[in-house]
UniProtKB/TrEMBL annotation:
GO terms under cellular component: cytosol; mitochondrion
GO MF term list: dihydrofolate reductase activity; thymidylate synthase activity
Organism lineage: Eukaryota, Viridiplantae, Streptophyta, Embryophyta, Tracheophyta
Domain named DHFR: residues: 59-236
Residues annotated as signal peptide: none
Keywords assigned: Methyltransferase, NADP, One-carbon metabolism, Oxidoreductase, Transferase
CDD domains tied to this protein: DHFR
Matches recorded under Gene3D superfamilies: Dihydrofolate Reductase, subunit A, Thymidylate synthase/dCMP hydroxymethylase domain
PANTHER family according to UniProt: THYMIDYLATE SYNTHASE, THYMIDYLATE SYNTHASE 1
Species the sequence originates in: Ficus carica
Listed name of the protein: DHFR domain-containing protein
Pfam families, A to Z: DHFR_1, Thymidylat_synt
Classification via PROSITE patterns: DHFR_1, DHFR_2
GO biological process, one term: one-carbon metabolic process
UniProt function note: Bifunctional enzyme. Involved in de novo dTMP biosynthesis. Key enzyme in folate metabolism. Can play two different roles depending on the source of dihydrofolate: de novo synthesis of tetrahydrofolate or recycling of the dihydrofolate released as one of the end products of the TS catalyzed reaction. Catalyzes an essential reaction for de novo glycine and purine synthesis, DNA precursor synthesis, and for the conversion of dUMP to dTMP.
Length: 494
């Protein structure tokens, strides 16, 4: 499935997450530098010094590891050792689509000097060091490009020979450089290893401006050396800070589309490995697999389908709400489906919520439609829902559903969102964080009449999923109304 989706991604655009200091703790990831005449010592390109806001057109992406308080270091060192973080950093910053090009990694002088001599310069990348004196102390100093400021570095990287030889620019540290670069206009994306474990730090960077940036993807929680962490990427969607959305509080509208339009038209500036991690690819990949290799089943002209058996999709609910972006899905329709869904669970839902609140270790928290015959014809797809199993782990609520049959066009986009809304709402009333939504299908199908519009949809790159906000004052499932749910920044392809 992933290979099929990757082919579509390659057709859609032409051309992960730590700070550099973490690289210094590993002696196995870096070999000898593959030298190039273009990477010899270099003086500052422009005579004009200045900050990153001075206007170079070359943009960059941030790579950093930080705690919840945005702490990145302690006494000049990284206060954690995460092998997966190092691997992620190397893959993200060293991989290019064009094998004839390299990426540039931009760092401050102290960060450069903190790398052990045997590991610098970082291989397969143009190492750019920022130093007011334009000097760096190292036996390999002749292989690093030196500039006085971020703006002068970006200005030079926009010009030949770097404009032809450098694919992407990553700013990787240290503290002063990141404080200047984070949230700046030239910052396209922020790839952050989010450290969940409480760790004492003395070096901090600013928080991400969430009116400018929106989550692209986040990983499940990982644990290494007793440190809990997750990888996440945020992409710029606005050029300037706007007024924050208040949470839905029972007003007249739960969804305002006018202010949610992105000012960024395409996100193909992201590294391929990050583009592929968008959760919408779970849906798109399954659709592509059904169209490419599904079994042909004949029937009436309106009921000829392509079908696959034993299918699964997974969505991470920790930061986003999975409402498809490659086509518009009706938020009002999602709300209607959600309220129909909980009406089918009315007799058992209070018991399940009580069980979650009082017995988090229960392995058999199951919801099932008690009276499917009471459901209306409008919600006939709900009759095909098997039991919904809920699981609590590490303060997170996850949900797994099973449907014997699934129409990937007519019902599944709404079902993804309505099950996600159910999971998020139960988590909300139970004081938990939404975790994963897993949807399993005995059989998933596509009508042959839908193949052509689906093929058009498959050639669109996803956009960031919207954010769900739930009225914080509501804690009883029986009291929710549509206006208690606000969808922020939903800007699908139309």
């Amino acid at each position: 499935m992933l290979a099929l989706r990757n082919q579509i991604l390659r057709n859609s655009f032409g051309t992960h997450s730590t700070n550099l200091d973490s690289v210094c703790s590993s002696s196995c990831l870096f070999g000898a530098f593959n030298g190039s005449p273009k990477c010899r010592a270099h003086s500052r390109f422009s005579a004009v010094a200045g900050d990153v806001n001075s206007g170079p057109k070359r943009t960059y992406q941030i790579v950093v590891a930080a705690t919840r308080e945005m702490g990145i270091g302690k006494e000049g060192k990284l206060p954690w050792k995460l092998p997966s973080d190092l691997k992620f950093f190397k893959e993200l910053t060293a991989t290019t689509l064009d094998p004839t090009k390299k990426n540039a990694v931009v760092m401050g002088r102290k960060t450069w000097e903190s790398i052990p001599l045997q590991f610098r310069p970082l291989p397969a990348r143009l190492n750019v060091v920022l130093s007011r004196s334009r000097k760096v102390g190292s036996a390999n100093a002749e292989k690093v490009v030196v500039f006085e400021s971020i703006s002068s570095a970006l200005e030079s990287l926009e010009q030949p020979p770097y404009s032809q030889s450098i694919e992407k620019v990553f700013v990787i540290g240290g503290g002063q450089v990141l404080r200047e670069a984070l949230n700046a206009p030239q910052c396209d994306a922020i790839h952050i290893t989010e450290i969940e474990t409480s760790i004492d730090c003395d070096t901090f960077i600013p928080s991400i401006h969430f009116s400018l940036f929106q989550p692209w993807y986040s990983s499940q929680l990982l644990v290494e050396n007793n440190v809990r962490f997750a990888f996440a990427s945020y992409v710029r969607v606005k050029s300037s800070i706007s007024e924050p959305h208040p949470c839905g509080n029972g007003g007249e509208s739960s969804f305002r589309s006018g202010s949610d339009k992105f000012e960024v038209g395409s996100f193909n500036f992201l590294p391929k490995m990050i583009l592929e991690r968008h959760d919408e690819n779970s849906y798109l990949g399954l659709v592509q697999e059904i169209i490419s290799s599904g079994s042909h089943k004949e029937g009436e002209p309106w009921n000829r389908i392509l079908s696959k058996f034993d299918c699964e999709m997974r969505f991470n609910l920790r930061k986003i709400f999975p409402l498809l972006t490659t086509k518009e899905v009706s938020w009002d329709g999602v709300l209607q489906e959600f309220f129909r869904l909980i009406s089918g669970f009315t007799k058992k839902l209070p018991d399940v919520i009580d069980e979650i609140r009082n017995n988090l270790d229960d392995k058999r928290i199951v919801l099932s439609v008690q009276n499917p015959s009471d459901l209306t014809l409008e919600s006939c797809n709900l009759r095909l829902i098997g039991p919904l199993q809920l699981c609590v782990a590490n303060g997170e609520l996850s949900c797994q559903t099973h449907q014997p049959s699934a129409d990937m066009v007519l019902t599944i986009p709404l079902n993804i969102a309505s099950y996600a809304l159910l999971t998020c709402t139960i988590a909300h009333v139970c004081g938990l964080i939404p975790g994963d939504l897993v949807l399993k299908f005995g059989e998933a199908h596509v009508s042959k009449t839908h193949v052509r519009p689906l093929q058009e949809q498959l050639h669109r790159l996803p956009k960031p999923f919207p954010i769900l906000k739930i009225n914080p004052h509501k804690k009883d499932m029986d009291t929710f109304v549509s206006a208690d749910f606000e969808l922020v920044s939903y800007d699908p392809h139309l």
